[in-house]
Design goal:
This protein has 682 residues and is of the alpha/beta class. The strands form seven sheets. The protein has an eight-stranded parallel β-barrel with strand order 3-4-5-8-9-10-11-12, surrounded by six helices. Bound molecules: flavin mononucleotide (FMN).
Length: 682
């Protein structure tokens, strides 16, 4: 077992939560990794948690786990391998026991979160037993249109029983405690929320009656597991829809009612629901650090020592964690994304190696992958989810150190350089720009995007630590590289935005007629100009967003805020397609509206004729014209910048590699992943 160095501070004092003794005040609240298979924990999941346990957290709370007998089989459809865990089936006990044992071996405790979706459950969720979603009342999910079946006493009793049986299963597996998910708009919260609970029976009508389901769930769990087992609740302190939903005042009332029952040992305070998920996991540049601290303080006051309060919400470093606890805003703090990015954040801080911490950027790719039905990954830390082969201690020293040239200091090149150097290679990093970071240097200048600099810093400090030699501010030719005595050359030269207007949706043409005109710019060139002078593109700008990424909308925000008449077109039904799953869209859309930006989905450009643009509706092809346009900005495809790579190969140099956008333009996660992989292979 690792020895975590001692450090003064209230966060390093132990805490008793129910039957569980925790060695410090830092936990990881539940988060979906989708690493399960056959509805039970896997070696991948165990390795993920063990890495964080080794890093020094006192408690991890495993991902949202099904308790309902109805969902047990439904979860077989939850992905190609049934990643959604179930606690209801006894067959899963051995796998949970392996998980518990593995985490305990590193002096860390583990709880499991129990969730039921209620109205948010897709109808017909079990292929072999189709049924509608159930909810407290006939009110649909804000994310859907299916009117749920109103839960009758039989189905409520069945569900309560399922919670109890699932808790007993977890207890038998050696899991230290269970946490009822009554936050984020899941079924128990639907009973608490006036938006969903319109009942007039003993489960609705007053706060006490709306809390009745949670009382019954708590009682049944206690009946099954006894009093010497830890039971808690995840709880949203604000639904952010005013008195239509759970307000902070109502939350205080609920906490008072629930704490008085003595059933729950802790309340883990979060916020948001399906109406306001973007507050549950706020992306970069939105909610400030520890933004729920005031709610934590109020929760502690409401509970008044009858239970412990856990608090989450963009707590990124130990100093902030210490402040939250010292200020009386919580008994424990959760640092989820900070630990997805760096499992060893605590240990590094304690050893005075803060500079080595891989810091969370807030890109929310971790969350987006889940929404897209994929396994969780991290843009800043490609080892996340791949701990079995890329975890601590897996970076082997190079058998024969070689001289490696990496061309391009964007995320792919920086990552490859840092990893190869850490393995003992001698690495020289070239970039024609004077600073490292590649295209992130542009994006980071847009409103709210400043934390991309954090990613650059992560990668740059790792490269420096490995002794990477930087040659910046001058382009390097293939011939110079070939004669430079390098054993391997890595081309991470990125991509360029296409400005022909070619789209895969229009195979009948090679581009947009008229796109070659001077008043047509690609989105990167446009953003570079606008960030210097927001009115440099004239008084009326049309942006064609055919990529769904942040850049076109961020550019529109800068333009609109400067009073430029700005319209964004997209052939898709929604603008900013990629920003839905990262929860960025609900933050940027109000800002675009405030800036007067017009959004026109389902529109594509037929032709550009100077200041006149012919557009059409995507499917109907109904035409329209926009006139008086000063500049058209195309945010469409990107092409690899791979000329250098081809020249190197043509020169007869065989050991050349291409990674990141230079291979195929994709996301920053693809770039850091490929940098890591190549850095380990060289
Ligand atoms: C990838 C991901 C998945 C999450 N899934 C869950 C979940 O299943 N249940 C839950 O209660 N919270 C979930 N959360 C919310 C976290 O527990 C936490 O409250 C949130 O990330 C804010 O904390 P942070 O700023 O330290 O990341 C998830 C968060 C992330 C990043």
């Amino acid at each position: 077992m690792e020895q975590t160095p001692e450090r003064e501070g209230v966060i390093f004092t132990p805490l008793q939560v129910g039957a569980t003794t925790l060695k410090n005040r830092i936990l990881l609240s539940p988060h979906r990794q989708a690493y399960g298979e056959d509805n039970q924990p896997t070696e991948r999941m165990i390795a993920y948690w063990v890495e964080r346990a080794k890093g020094g957290v006192a408690l991890v709370s495993g991902e949202s786990t099904s308790v309902s007998r109805r969902l047990a089989r439904a979860s077989a459809e939850s992905g190609p391998s049934g990643w959604r865990l179930t606690a209801w089936e006894e067959r899963v006990i051995p796998a949970f026991a392996r998980l518990a044992d593995a985490v305990h071996a590193h002096d860390c405790r583990i709880f499991m979160e129990f969730s039921t979706f209620g109205v948010n459950q897709a109808a017909q969720s079990d292929f072999d037993d189709w049924h509608p979603p159930g909810g407290p009342s006939a009110v649909p999910s804000p994310g859907g249109t299916v009117i749920p079946q109103v839960m009758d006493q039989v189905s409520i009793d069945e569900l309560v029983e399922d919670y109890g049986r699932s808790a007993a299963n977890m207890q038998r597996a050696g899991i230290d405690g269970v946490e009822v998910h009554a936050a984020h708009g899941y079924l128990p919260m639907q009973f608490l929320s006036p938006a969903f609970n319109k009942r007039t029976d003993r489960y609705g009508g007053s706060p006490r009656r709306c809390a009745q389901l949670l009382v019954e769930i708590g009682e049944e769990i206690r009946r099954q597991v006894g009093s010497a087992y830890t039971v808690g609740m995840r709880f949203s302190f604000d639904e952010y829809i005013g008195s239509a939903g759970v307000t902070p005042e109502l939350a205080e009332e609920y906490l008072d009612i629930l704490a008085a029952t003595g059933l729950y040992d802790f309340f883990s305070v979060s916020s948001g629901s399906y109406h306001s998920f973007h507050y549950a996991v706020p992306p970069m540049g939105t909610a400030p650090e520890a933004f729920l601290a005031d709610y934590g303080r109020r929760a502690k006051a409401a509970v008044g020592g009858r239970a412990k309060i856990f608090l989450a919400g963009r707590i990124l470093d130990l100093a902030t964690a210490e402040r939250v606890i010292a200020d009386g805003a919580a008994d424990m703090v959760s640092m989820v994304r900070a630990h997805i990015a760096d499992p060893f954040l605590i240990r590094k801080s304690l050893e005075g190696r803060e500079g080595e911490i891989v810091r969370c950027v807030g890109a929310n790719e971790c969350l987006a992958t889940g929404f897209r039905g994929r396994r969780m990954h991290c843009v800043a830390n490609p080892s996340t989810g791949r701990e079995i082969y890329w975890g601590e201690g897996t970076l082997s020293q190079a058998k024969a150190p070689r001289r490696i040239a990496v061309v391009g200091a964007g995320p792919a090149g920086l990552k490859a350089a840092g990893v190869a150097a850490a393995r003992g290679h001698s690495v020289t990093l070239f970039d024609e720009n004077a600073s490292v970071g590649g295209h992130l240097n542009l994006i980071k200048r847009l409103p709210t995007r400043g934390d991309w600099q954090t990613l650059i810093n992560n990668l740059a400090t790792a490269a420096k630590r490995g002794g990477v030699e930087e040659r910046l501010g001058k382009s390097v030719a293939a011939a110079d590289l070939a004669s430079g005595g390098f054993d391997e050359i890595v081309c991470a030269t990125g991509s360029r935005w296409d400005r022909t207007g070619f789209s895969g949706a229009r195979p009948d043409r090679t581009g947009i007629p008229g796109a070659e005109a001077e008043n047509v710019l690609d989105v990167a060139a446009a953003a570079a100009r606008v960030l210097e002078n927001p009115r440099s593109l004239g008084g009326k700008v049309v942006i064609l967003d055919d990529c769904g990424a942040y850049l076109p909308l961020g550019l529109a925000e800068v333009l609109g805020s400067a009073g430029v008449d700005t319209e964004v077109l997209s052939r898709f039904a929604a603008l900013g397609e990629a920003l839905i799953a990262t929860l960025e869209l609900p933050w940027i859309l109000p800002r675009l509206a405030a800036a007067g930006v017009r959004l026109s989905p389902n529109r594509f450009i037929e032709a550009i004729d100077g200041s006149r643009i012919e557009v059409y509706e995507t499917w109907s092809r109904r035409p329209a014209v926009i006139t008086g346009v000063d500049t058209v900005v195309l945010a469409m495809l990107r092409s690899p910048r791979d000329l250098l790579y081809k020249e190197i190969l043509a020169d007869g140099f065989a050991r050349a590699h291409r990674i990141g956008d230079a291979l195929a333009p994709r996301t920053v996660s693809d770039a850091t992943y490929e940098g890591e992989r190549l850095g380990r292979e060289l």
